Predict the 3D structure of the following.
Amino acid sequence: MTETSQETKLTLFYISIAFTFSVLMRLIWVYHFADYEPFYFNGQFMINTNDGYIWAEGARDLLLGTTTNPNAKEYFDKFHQLYDLSPVTSAASQLTALFAKILPFSFESVIFYMPVFLSSLVVIPIILIARVMKNLEMGLIAALLASIAWSYYNRTMAGYYDTDMLNIVLPMFLLWSIIWAVETNRNIYLIITAIDILIYRWWYPQSYSLEFSFFGLILAYALIFDRKNLFNYKLLAIMMLAMMNGDGFLRLGLVVVVYILFRDKKYDKYVFYILGLAVAAFLVSGGLSPIWAQLKGYVFRDSVSATDKGLGLHFFTVMQTVREAGHIPFETFANRISGHTVTFLISLAGYLYLLYKHRIMLFSLPLVGLGFLAYVGGLRFTIYAVPVLAFGIAYLIIEIARIMPTAKLKYLSMIAFTLAIIFPNYKHIEAYNVPTVFNANEVQVLQDLGKKADREDYVISWWDYGYPIRYYADVKTLSDGGKHSGSVNFPVSFMLTHTQEEAAKMARLDVEYTEKTYAFRDTHKEEISDKNLTIFSNIEQMTKDYGFKNTNDFLATLKSDIKLPKKTRDIYFYLPFRMTSIYPTVTLFSNIDLMNGRQGRQPFFYVARSFKDLGSKIQLGANIFLDKRTLNLTIGNKTMPIRRFVKTQYTKDMKLQKNVQLVNFSSDISVIYMVNYNTMLLVDEKTYNSMYIQLMVLEDYDPKLFEPVILTPSAKVYKLKI
């Protein structure tokens, strides 16, 4: 057996070990919740990430369009309705539909287990990269750590059905192909690198920045270390063509043509001309625009955004409330990359030493840089640094093992140190028992709603729940995980946090304006693309159409009898109990003066779920007490009466009963004791009169405006009557 054959067998053996390990670690969650019925629906586990439902919706619609039913296209056209935003052209949906079509498993099982197996593929490029450095054991250790490190596990665990399941796998394959291309100068790696880029862009359109970073680093490497090597410029040219901002099949065609030319030495004299044309094509196609857009969104962001034209309205930006885009402490940053602060610091030192010993690993700097961006740009980026820094500590472990006096000590040290760096990550996995997005009762509400609502109807709720609503109820929504800008969220926040009358009118206005805007965009594509037409936000267009120049004046008219747009469809409100946890965040988007961007006084809202009965008093939280006899509320050093004390409780037949005890009308604070939820709410008068509290918590709806459709403790659905 040749040395190469032995190395290949060992490579495959190590890949199989690391892959199996990664899969088994992700099944711990499955084992833990195997008998927990609220996480099941239709006999299958539900996914545990909100965004996953958008890809599931697209895959579902694709499968309906490819069924063997002779009326399939007609059925698909009916199922995938106009302006429903179903991502039938997205890579995640298309790949899911393919797997669901060819695999003998239910659709729910496919989307639940896809991240388990796809994300574990990351071990392949890690071990192949180590093979370049003739250090397969380093690759195995790095693969074991990287495959289950905190942030990577969190975003690729069982049920975390999202694009993250390949978002590190694909750039690691790209890093592998670049390293092998530079190391071997073999033409085959030109086309492999280009195809890597094409697949990566197909899967994750936001890959521009990382691809461009790789390109820049290869250019620097060529100019500094290997400027006379024509192969490097061939690699740059074919990468630039693959990176163009345009149709994937067009880029593939260009890549294949150029690859064929590069294989023939007689065209070597044209390499620099081809590179120049490739760079020009990249710039002309708008290749830099998406990169700037990403930096603007995640790094150079403001808490309030203003429109450039028209009334210049100011909206609260959603990025300020998304945890993954917020600043994180160093300990969290380190733990998410390596599992422990000590492991991270050693990994960083090992990585620097690895760069010194193996210059080829300089090409991994873009991944580390993007991962370190998490320290200022949000924790979601930490996953990019995980596999590269895993190389660092794995390299040190191998170096330490090499100086051991005996073979036995060598292997024992490798095993001991590997277990030591894996253990904190295993403990994290063991304790990371995240719930599914919805429980079975909430999903049942949505499925029941889907049977009552037409597919052209709108269901209004907060954007966190938009994708699951569309998936389970097959209706339209105003906002979701991809459509939640400040201008989109303002009307929805306004509805949930204002009076029933204001909410009802805003709902009808926003839904009808949303449909009109879709239609307008569809019929004026060329004018919009040429920037001859400006599409204003719904709220700004409403302001103008009703003859106002100040949006505050327009909003004030919602308390009066204004003429509403003609009704074209029904509107439902989906109000889950879980929204109580994020109600203060919901208020931020409409508690703002749109004309100047000034944030209003935050409404008083406090949720107590771990309160204690101390005899004469109830402790609702730290330094918050309610006197049971006088019903006075003490917050810190301040004592005040409450306005009312409300007790809600479900009967045996699940009918809500409420007892309202008026206490002192001079007070602005009310206490709502929700017995069945073991929850107490402390709310000011504005919050108490909000649509969400009145309809979801108290079921005290205005029959002229709303009609109850589904009333359960988990979630309540009301139909708009105007």
User: Anything to note?
Assistant: Residues 440-579 form a domain with the Pyruvate Kinase; Chain: A, domain 1 fold (CATH 3.40.1380.40).
